[in-house]
Amino acid sequence: MKKILAILMLGFVLFLAACGSDGNADEAAGSATAGAEGTSEGSGDNEKQVVTFWHSMGGAGQEALNAIVDSYNSSQDEVQVNAEYQGSYDEALTKFNSVAGTDSAPTIIQTFEIGTMSMINSGSILPIQELVDADGYDMSGLEENIINYYSLDGTFYSMPFNSSTPVMYYNKDAFEAAGLDPEAPPETFEEVEEASKAIVEANPDMKGFALQAYGWLYEQLLANQGALLLNNDNGRTDTPTEIGWTEEEGKSIFEWVERMVNDETFANYGTNGDNMVSGFLAGDVSMFLQSSASSRDVIDNAPFEVGIAFLPHPEEKERAGVVIGGASLWMIDGKPEAETNAAWDFMKYLQTPEIQAEWHVGTGYFAINPAAYDEQVAVDAHEEMPQLNVTVEQLQATTSSFATQGALMDMIPEGRKIMETALETVYNGGEVDDAYNTAVDQFNTAIEQANAARGE
Amino acid sequence: MSMNSTAIQQTPKSQINFEQVKKKQRMKNFSKGMLFLLPSIILFSVFLFYPLARTIYLSFFLTDAAGATTVFVGWENYVTMFTSPIFLQSMKSTFLFVLYTVPITIIISLFLAVIANEKLKGIGFFRTIYSSTMGISVAAASVFWLYLFHPSMGPLNLLLNAIGAEGIGWLTDTSWALFAIAITTIWMNIGFTFLILLGGLQSIDSSLYESADIDGAGYFYKLRRITIPMLSPTLFFVVTVTIINAFQTFGQIDILTQGGPVNSTNLVVYSIYREAFVNYKFGSASAQAVLLFIIILLMTFLQFKFGERKVHYQ
């Protein structure tokens, strides 16, 4: 009896030990980096004006941002910027809402583009326009499409910072192996389907295409057809009351995905973008859509040649272009003037061509100040990695309209979740009609509720 | 006469005094008791009673993004909640999840505790290892399972491929995702449950086994007739706590699936979080929280009413 028990126990030990060691290693690594950050933050000079900067940049973005903050801190000796990572945009916004108006509120917070409306409504921010006017700062040097998104009735509420657009990443080696031209990536939904079939035929272990169930991508695929997300011109002329796209426009994306699911060329990674990227890097899927912000990461880590292409569109529609994604920096109201001015100085520093060039090259976000592309760092990088240039070209090819200016409404985060659920339904073999109609109903209800909650 | 009347007057007076003293004494005792309770009353009020009252209050309102109330809507949040297919799905998933995790966690932990209760050489080593998952944070464990579940590079799917089976979309397939979360949770909970059960086993009086041995009872007979009944108070505690924990599962869902695919793992606490901190609808989130509170209260009450009858206290 005891012998059997001993053997049994050893078996369980092996199982638990295999699992346990991995988890511990993760934790140890996490605490080590946290510790390192803590010391670098604590080493600031007390006499300097301290500016607290909350951001949501993880991974390569965090490294690039920390480098920029360090360079700013050492470039002068009056201001000490403390960059603090506060988790995803959602999490950072939640934390901010709970400390807004108290001393614990940061001086600057980075918030994603769809948070624009709720930040303005929150009443705890200082519109950047006031500082621009007081300082006589010239904002016209910024990229035109960025000005279109972030200025409302000619007023800048926040300082644009990290902007990206969605692009299609593809595996050039796999394209070659399947007899496709790696320099002519598919441009339309239909061409993506054809290419996917060719890829799967050449290599049954590789899927053709992956679309992460991510509401942002759905919005972009709509905008690329020239469709609005919300009525009243995407909420730019009046508060939206219902969805802005037509059934044909909205359904085309679902039907496209369904056709690929039926062809068995579609790789389902659900809502998990990291899994999708690692699947791509491991050669499990040949094409996927993702923010251009990951391009540096993907190019550096891929064992094959990575191509970057424009976002696809339905064959019968003209390409309308993309909406600015990413985030901007908000100045928090109610801080001492010295602190606000110090923060403003830091914001201006971030806009300089040198810093924007470094940022663009280090991450794949595009430079919001086009002068950055003439910087030597950017020129060299574009020569070495011509893919980085695609982002810039795609943005510049965008025709400005309400569709590509992007939607403004405080319920967009909820709307994204609704579209994600609908996409996942189709990935799992659900009916397009059902999924689509449910999603539209829920989307409209969410808009109604958001308007009701504002007491309008 | 006059003396008499004073005497009569005095007697009730002294009686009144006596009652007053008694009352005073009681008051004194009461305030003394309150004084002792004060620290916990303050703590409970600040961290439990006030938030509870506030949640109930919020559940009757619509709010803005900062959580400030804007419009009073009465029971509307509750009505919307009970008619929303998303919420009903989330309740269903929660009950399924409790059903998946609680019995299996307890059976495995009990099994491990029974075998680790044997007096073997180096048993301390095994006990440490079995309880080790208790020392791993939910976040770390989830990240590790996220890797195991990876659709193409995860060891689980590689294993399936190696034996010729098709890989499973653990976290992306609607029929597997809840199951995958349940496996993760069971693994994480085993450490704690094992430790409590082992503690229970250790406190069983060895004379019971000795007399059973003298009577010639077999291993399984002793297990059924001595171990399980004597362990019942501990088991009862473990069942209650595991059920409450299962209802409140959050971390692993946030990291592994974010409620997806198609809301199949959107358990009720995650749904509350999403409603409040992604959709900024604190009103309906509060309504869900109130419902969760009532359900857990009811479950615990029922357990004490019916479950405890079978518990044998020494």
Describe the protein.
The complex is a heterodimer of chains A (456) and B (314). Chain A is of the alpha/beta class and 456 residues long. Chain A has two domains: 46-163 and 325-374, D-Maltodextrin-Binding Protein, domain 2, CATH 3.40.190; 166-322 and 404-453, 3-Layer(aba) Sandwich (D-Maltodextrin-Binding Protein, domain 2). Chain A contains 20 helices and 13 strands. Chain A has helices at 2-42, 59-75, 89-99, 116-122, 128-135, 144-150, 172-177, 189-202, 215-223, 231-235, 247-263, 273-281, 295-301, 337-351, 353-363, 376-384, 387-396, 402-405, 412-427, 432-453, and strands spanning 49-55, 79-85, 108-112, 125-126, 151-152, 155-156, 159-164, 166-171, 207-210, 266-267, 285-291, 306-309, 325-332. In chain A, strands 1, 2, 3, 4, 7 and 13 form a six-stranded mixed beta sheet that branches. A five-stranded mixed beta sheet of chain A has the order 10-9-11-8-12. In chain A, strands 5-6 form a two-stranded antiparallel ribbon. In chain A, helix 9 (215-223) packs across helix 19 and helix 15 runs parallel beside helix 16. Chain A is globular, with a radius of gyration of 24 Å. Chain B has 314 residues and is mainly alpha-helical. Chain B has two domains: 2-58; 83-310, MetI-like fold. Chain B is built from twelve helices and two strands. In chain B, strands 1-2 form a two-stranded antiparallel sheet. In chain B, helix 2 (76-83) packs across helix 12 and helix 3 runs antiparallel to helix 9. The N and C termini of chain B lie far apart (69 Å). At the A-B interface, helix 1, helix 3, helix 4, helix 12 and helix 19 of A face helix 3, helix 4 and helix 5 of B. Chain A: Residues 27-46 are annotated as: Disordered. Chain A: It is found in: Cell envelope. Chain A: Residues 1-20 form the signal peptide.
